[in-house]
Each structure stands twice: as structure tokens, then as C-alpha cells.
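User: I'm putting together a teaching handout on how sequence relates to shape, and I'd like one worked example. Could you take YeeE/YedE family protein from Chryseobacterium tagetis, show the sequence you're using, and then write out its predicted structure as C-alpha cells right after it?

Assistant: Happy to. First the sequence, then the C-alpha cells directly below it.
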Amino acid sequence: MKNNNVACNNEISAQHKWYHNLKYLLVGILFGIVFVKAEIISWFRIQEMFRLQSFHMYGVIGSAVLTGMISVWLIKKFKIKTLNGEPVTIAPKEFNKGQIFGGLIFGFGWAITGACPGPLFAQIGTGAFAVIITLLSAILGTWVYGYFRDQLPH
């Protein structure tokens, strides 16, 4: 099965040139600009949120959750397909206690560093180069999880 995936990925790679990814770079840059202008990457805004001093970040997060819920509902209701004509499938997920622990670790890291993975690159792009340490820590944490994943309860 793995060989089929590799062959399929090679076919996809052969069809798409490197410059086809420029659209993702453009969207990423625009997304970063929106993050900066909306003050989503502001350490002070994030601290206000965790200290329950401001509604700003809760409003942004709530809007994103609501948009996601409506989008998933529309995708399921109208059986929307990808640009390549493939059906969009959303796998059901079971709740487990690891999600609580993972969420707490994520939240603690977010509160301590003032950054979650999404805005890290926008923060670095604005010149907050100390955030590179947070980025490297996130990469290391992901690697450690991947290394020990089979030994962790799921």
C-alpha cells in the first residue's frame, strides 16, 4: 500500500511544478497581514485573553469556530468536492482524555510564549526574532511526540 502512495505522490509531483505553490505563499502572506492588522499576533492581546481582561481574542477565536462549523455543515449538506473533483470526507473522531492533556499543554505553551503555531511565522515576519526559539521548540515538541507516539495512550 505504501508503494502505491509513493507512486501516486510521484505522479502528483510530476504534474505540479514548484511555481504552482506560489498561490499558497501568497495566501499565507495575506493571512499573516490579516493576523498583524487584527492584532492576533500581539503578545499583549494574548496575555489579555489569558488574564480574562479583554474579549478581543475570544471574539476572533469564536468567529473562527463559527465559520468552521458553518463551512463543515455546508460541505456536508451540499456534498462539495475539491477542485480536483474528489469528495471531501471528514473522518469521525472519538474523544479521549489525551485531548484534554494535549489541550492543557498547548494552552500553557500559548500563555507562556504568547504564540500558537499559526501566528509564529507572522510574528517572525514582523521582526520578533525571539519567536524563532518558540518555533524551534514547537518543531522539537512535534518530533518528540512523533517519536513516542506509539508508546502514548490514544
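A couple of points you could highlight for students: DSSP finds seven helices and no strands in the chain. The longest helix spans residues 56-77.
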